[in-house]
Specification:
This protein is an alpha+beta fold. 40% of the residues lie in helices and 16% in strands. The chain has seven helices and five strands. It has a five-stranded antiparallel beta sheet. α2 packs across α3 and α4 (111-128) runs antiparallel to α5 (134-148). The longest helix is centred in the first third of the chain and has 23 residues, at 16-38. It is extended and about 70 Å long.
Length: 221
């Protein structure tokens, strides 16, 4: 009789059966969390199949990471961020404060911000790989969204890479050098002029580096 009562538990106590259920649920939760974390970056086919089965539960609790850039914490040369910027009509391209950084609203940790980060990274990759019309098509979609949804008529669009600071500058540099948003820490990966018609149609003309543009021939004397 005493053994039977111990399995039920007294007032305010959890029974052995309930402990077993809670332990099983916690173990399954930790397993799902493990696969979500381990399969975030360079996931294998096996991890992809397992995450496909576990996706409903992971999405329900919002810990399906969807390739979050945790590798950026390694401080490697390639661990950099990218951002898309638009220059409204009539603004000075040399004035960094005149550029509209996307997204222009919302929480920095929100999904909208993450989408633009992923899009900027993809644009930079396609531009550096000379992927044909890929960068132009994506950039044109960004400009069209700004025109039709944001009420902005940009005449330039660009993607900039945000470079890392060296430890020496961070610890012993000037205040300007320690500023992570200083212009020296940004590199333009892709830039284009935007031509917008009266009906809102957008065409882009890539801005090439001077070294990549053929110089006009000098007239013969």
């Amino acid at each position: 009789m005493q053994a039977a009562n111990s399995s039920v538990g007294g007032p305010g106590q959890i029974s052995d059966r309930m402990r077993s259920v809670v332990s099983l649920v916690l173990a399954l939760h930790i397993i799902v969390l493990f696969f979500a974390l381990s399969g975030n970056y360079f996931r294998s086919p096996l991890q992809a199949r397992i995450l496909g089965v576990l996706r409903p539960y992971a999405q329900l609790l919002n810990f399906e990471l969807d390739f979050l850039p945790y590798q950026l914490t390694h401080a490697q040369i390639s661990d950099v961020d990218h951002r898309i910027e638009l220059l409204p009509t009539g603004s000075d391209a040399a004035d960094d404060s005149a550029w509209l950084v996307l997204p222009d609203r919302g929480f920095r940790g929100g999904e909208r911000y993450k989408r633009y980060q992923r899009l900027g990274r993809l644009l930079a990759f396609l531009a550096e790989e000379n992927a044909g019309a890929g960068p132009s098509l994506l950039s044109r979609s960004v400009v069209e969204n700004a025109v039709h949804q944001g009420g902005v008529r940009p005449y330039q669009v660009r993607v900039r890479r945000h470079l890392l600071q060296s430890p020496d500058i961070f610890s012993g540099g000037t205040p300007e050098q320690r500023d992570p948003n200083a212009p020296t820490y940004f590199r333009v990966v892709y830039a284009a002029n935007a031509l917008i018609s009266e009906t809102g149609q957008v065409e882009l003309i890539k801005i090439d580096e001077t070294a990549e543009v053929a110089l006009p021939e000098s007239p013969q004397p």
